[in-house]
Amino acid sequence: MAENRSVPEVDRAAAARRAVERRRARAALKRDLTMRVVTPQKVLERATADADSVEGSMRITDFLLALPAIGAGKRDRILAELQISPVKRLGGLGVRQRGVLRGWLDSRFPVLEPRGARSRLLVLAGPTAVGKGTVAAYIREHNPEIHLSVSATTRAPRPGEIDGVHYYFVDDAEFDRLIADGELLEYAVVHNKSRYGTPRAPIDAALAAGKTVLLEIDLQGARQVRRAEPAATLIFLLPPTWDELVQRLVGRGTENAEERTRRLKTAKVELAAQNEFDHLIVNEDVATAAAEVVELSLGSAR
Ligand SMILES: Nc1nc2c(ncn2[C@@H]2O[C@H](COP(=O)(O)OP(=O)(O)O)[C@@H](O)[C@H]2O)c(=O)[nH]1
Ligand SMILES: Nc1ncnc2c1ncn2[C@@H]1O[C@H](COP(=O)(O)OP(=O)(O)O)[C@@H](O)[C@H]1O
């Protein structure tokens, strides 16, 4: 029997379909914001241009939560500081509210203009256990065209770490000699404990051979490289959430409770400095994060 549906029923079905589509579009927008596929400034611009757009209909609370390293507590503090009601949608913000929100976004997530010619030197930094080593190992396996720098360190090797592959494991006397002989591009005491440094010669040779070089180093090292090589590309790897970071550190099982506490203290300092970096990448999934790093390396090669 032909399906006789009244007009209201047809309208209701169409409206239901539209609601599902909008929900899907909002979920995709949240993911793009978290993965830094779109800048928050761009989303705010689109919401301002069209209040009925997906961006315009996004609640300010969802918008802030979608940003890297913003949890519910921080979201509420930001809204109070900016004096924006949590029930607002992006498209419904007033001129003042849009102005203060844009100012906060520019301070927290600066949209950096390209700084002219980029060098082929990439720095990957980020808090302990965010997954730097895992992402770097994935790149080592899948992108042999990228030279991964092997650091020298005075820390003891972890189970499975191979001398000359993961690190050059040296004692303090040898590390002092490397410094004295000017063999390190940068070096630092990390987690107030061991020393880490980047041997200069392999980097110079790889760059001279036209290869892209990836350094996986800490915030202090990244700052030194920025000073020595302003055209280097600095990338900060973020955890999806703070809790996930803690879980990864505990799950890795390579430090005792005291060392974990020490490292998490450093992690908070490093997360607060992420604005010094050119790009933020959330390590939700290793392959995706690695692909984003490689994508940036292609940008530097241009
Ligand atoms: N400055 C600097 N930091 C480094 C170097 N190599 C590794 N690091 C950093 O030292 C910190 C400690 O590394 P590691 O002991 O492997 O612990 P993890 O951070 O938990 O992986 C991490 O932030 C690394 O990025 C280096 O050559 N120079
Ligand atoms: N995307 C991810 N999802 C879940 N666990 C991850 C992810 N990336 C890394 N890990 C795990 O987190 C722990 C810390 O990773 P690691 O590479 O040692 O971090 P880092 O080098 O930044 O200190 C490891 O146990 C690793 O297997």
From TrEMBL:
<comment type="similarity">
    <text>Belongs to the guanylate kinase family.</text>
</comment>
<dbReference type="InterPro" id="IPR020590">
    <property type="entry name" value="Guanylate_kinase_CS"/>
</dbReference>
<keyword id="KW-0547">Nucleotide-binding</keyword>
<dbReference type="Pfam" id="PF00625">
    <property type="entry name" value="Guanylate_kin"/>
</dbReference>
<dbReference type="GO" id="GO:0005829">
    <property type="term" value="C:cytosol"/>
</dbReference>
<dbReference type="InterPro" id="IPR027417">
    <property type="entry name" value="P-loop_NTPase"/>
</dbReference>
<dbReference type="InterPro" id="IPR055201">
    <property type="entry name" value="IHF-like_H2TH"/>
</dbReference>
<keyword id="KW-0808">Transferase</keyword>
<protein>
    <recommendedName>
        <fullName>Guanylate kinase</fullName>
        <ecNumber>2.7.4.8</ecNumber>
    </recommendedName>
</protein>
<feature type="binding site">
    <location>
        <begin position="126"/>
        <end position="133"/>
    </location>
    <ligand>
        <name>ATP</name>
    </ligand>
</feature>
<keyword id="KW-0963">Cytoplasm</keyword>
<dbReference type="GO" id="GO:0004385">
    <property type="term" value="F:GMP kinase activity"/>
</dbReference>
<keyword id="KW-0418">Kinase</keyword>
<feature type="domain" description="Guanylate kinase-like">
    <location>
        <begin position="119"/>
        <end position="298"/>
    </location>
</feature>
<dbReference type="InterPro" id="IPR047806">
    <property type="entry name" value="IHF_actinobact"/>
</dbReference>
<dbReference type="InterPro" id="IPR008144">
    <property type="entry name" value="Guanylate_kin-like_dom"/>
</dbReference>
<keyword id="KW-0067">ATP-binding</keyword>
<dbReference type="InterPro" id="IPR017665">
    <property type="entry name" value="Guanylate_kinase"/>
</dbReference>
<dbReference type="GO" id="GO:0005524">
    <property type="term" value="F:ATP binding"/>
</dbReference>
<dbReference type="Pfam" id="PF22525">
    <property type="entry name" value="H2TH_5"/>
</dbReference>
<dbReference type="InterPro" id="IPR008145">
    <property type="entry name" value="GK/Ca_channel_bsu"/>
</dbReference>
<comment type="function">
    <text>Essential for recycling GMP and indirectly, cGMP.</text>
</comment>
